[in-house]
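Continuing the series of single-chain predictions for the mutant panel. This is the parent chain; the variants come on the following pages.
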Amino acid sequence: MDELKKILKDLIQLTEPEWNILKDKLIRKEFKAKSIIIREGKIADCIYFIDKGLLRTYFLQDGKEVNTYFACDGQFISSYSSFISQTPSHEYLETIENSSVYSISFATMTELYKISSKFEKLGRILAEKNYLCVIDRTRKMQILTAEQKYLDFIDGYDKKIVQRVPQHQIASYLGIAPESLSRVRRHISIS
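Parent structure:
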């Protein structure tokens, strides 16, 4: 919880009284590896701050998993479009490894918005970061080669994600075949 407090003090200059209001509303949850937290077709009622762990979002296309996002310690995650619109999710949220998170419900976030404009600022910042992430990923998917995508991934993502996410999930996220990712990785290690 200390990490979340530090992040929020830096991000939105949260005061001690505001932190005390928020911390009383956070719910700590523990999930085993491969736990489905949000299912496709269900409304994402919570946003999660990852205290420790590794999670991903993905959707199914013709029975095949297509990874859309990875997050680990000190990061937020949800099926974000479902969370902000309170409509059924088009994706799954799943733990890759045992994970401890703090959750906050949509209703609680809405309540916090009324308490302090800093909480509204937090909601806005999370929405902006999510939007920019989607736009950046869309651009990269359209213009980068497989090697450029992978190099960008290892440069831009947390080391824990790069090292511990299974390679087939990384390949799916990058929009390339697992065999192509293997070739790219071999080529990079030779260079």
